[in-house]
């Protein structure tokens, strides 16, 4: 019998949520409120939809494997060289490329407790050893992470903000951390949700690249840019790291429709503003009501929030589902008392809050 390599044998497959239509059919519900995957509730930019329509006749051709136009646009957007960009099939793809390029069997890959689940998975798949550093509160303990680096450490993953906790660290904290990291360790700064953040001391990873050649910043079109289904994300780094990542990348890892949609979206600044504003108002709507209900939550700067519902979180998740509200259990992150809910449209948030109130306080 053929055996998969050790790292792969130890993997637990990702369990995706059931398709919405299937949930609707099973539960006999007319409407479903899907607040489970930190997506953009506004739908995509109309410009992206138009660009896709325009590109449809060309799908018999292979995509542009170099992503020429999109890289040009991104390089203008950030004021960087195209050679610093690596495109990926979602930023997940980029995270995996990074592990494949920089960590192998026996190497250590360091991240925080409660950090995004792909880091330990990608490390394990590569046969590397994932090292989870205890969190500080619910957030990254950057001093603890620096102290956990060893001769074997090849990679560090930092999520700013982190999913699922929504916690973040400041520019001065990040700078202090980076000074402690030896140059031969690659630091990945995952900024999947950066567009939502308005805190003045939130660091712009791309601006730190010049002074930190071992840094890689990853970003995505899945969240604030509303293109989750198209699977497109990217890394920005020094050009030597990008050269390495582009060597391990599949030549056509980003399809034509994703490329044209991302390009059109980047030009739609109003759409981005609306997405951010919807999220700001929705976060306030959700947290105000949680406060008035006396339900604890972890302060979040992302487009989601982790709510502490108690020991019966799994049951509450099921009961929300029966009401047509899909949220995300986070027990797999070692957070069995929490549920993560994404910020939706005002009426979606309202539906979630009403369902939660009915479940938690049936007699009021
Ligand atoms: N990083 C973080 C922190 C995330 O939460 C996600 C999406 N859940 C990703 C990366 C990957 O997103 P995508 O592959 O859609 O770009």
From TrEMBL:
EC number: 2.6.1.9
UniProt pathway: Amino-acid biosynthesis; L-histidine biosynthesis; L-histidine from 5-phospho-alpha-D-ribose 1-diphosphate: step 7/9
GO molecular function: histidinol-phosphate transaminase activity; pyridoxal phosphate binding
Domain Aminotransferase class I/classII large: 31-355
Keyword Cytoplasm found: no
Record PTM N6-(pyridoxal phosphate)lysine, positions in chain: 223
Key words of the record: Amino-acid biosynthesis, Aminotransferase, Histidine biosynthesis, Pyridoxal phosphate, Transferase
Any one Gene Ontology BP term: L-histidine biosynthetic process
SUPFAM superfamilies named in the record: PLP-dependent transferases
Family, per entry: Belongs to the class-II pyridoxal-phosphate-dependent aminotransferase family. Histidinol-phosphate aminotransferase subfamily.
Protein name: Histidinol-phosphate aminotransferase
């Amino acid at each position: 019998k053929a055996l998969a390599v050790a790292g792969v044998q130890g993997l637990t497959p990702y369990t995706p949520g059931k398709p919405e239509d299937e949930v609707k059919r099973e539960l006999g519900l007319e409407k479903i409120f899907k607040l489970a995957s930190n997506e953009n509730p506004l739908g995509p930019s109309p410009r992206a939809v138009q660009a896709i329509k325009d590109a449809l006749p060309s799908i018999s051709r292979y995509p542009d494997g170099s992503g020429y136009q999109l890289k040009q646009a991104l390089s203008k957007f950030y004021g960087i060289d195209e050679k610093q960009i690596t495109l990926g099939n979602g930023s997940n793809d980029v995270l995996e490329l990074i592990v494949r390029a920089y960590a192998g069997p026996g190497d250590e890959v360091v991240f925080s407790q409660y950090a995004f689940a792909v880091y330990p998975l990608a490390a394990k798949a590569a046969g590397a050893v994932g090292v989870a550093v205890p969190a500080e509160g619910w957030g990254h303990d950057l001093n603890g992470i620096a102290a956990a680096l060893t001769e074997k450490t090849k990679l560090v993953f930092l999520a700013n903000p982190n999913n699922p906790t929504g916690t973040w660290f400041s520019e001065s904290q990040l700078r202090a951390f980076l000074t402690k990291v030896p140059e031969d360790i690659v630091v990945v700064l995952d900024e999947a949700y950066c567009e939502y953040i308005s805190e003045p001391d939130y660091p712009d990873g791309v601006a730190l690249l010049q002074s930190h050649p071992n840094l890689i910043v990853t970003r995505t079109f899945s969240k604030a840019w509303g293109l989750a289904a198209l699977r497109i994300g990217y890394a920005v780094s020094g050009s030597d790291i990008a050269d390495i990542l582009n060597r391990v990348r599949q030549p056509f890892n980003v399809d034509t429709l994703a490329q044209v949609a991302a390009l059109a979206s980047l030009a739609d600044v109003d759409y981005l503003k609306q997405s951010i504003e919807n999220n700001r108002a929705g976060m306030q709507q959700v947290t105000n009501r949680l406060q008035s209900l006396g339900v604890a939550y972890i302060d979040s700067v992302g487009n989601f929030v982790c709510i502490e519902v108690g020991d019966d979180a799994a049951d509450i998740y099921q009961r929300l589902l029966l009401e047509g509200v899909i949220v995300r259990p986070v027990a797999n992150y070692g957070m069995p008392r929490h549920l993560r809910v994404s910020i939706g449209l005002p009426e979606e948030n309202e539906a979630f809050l009403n369902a939660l109130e009915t479940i938690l306080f049936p007699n009021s």
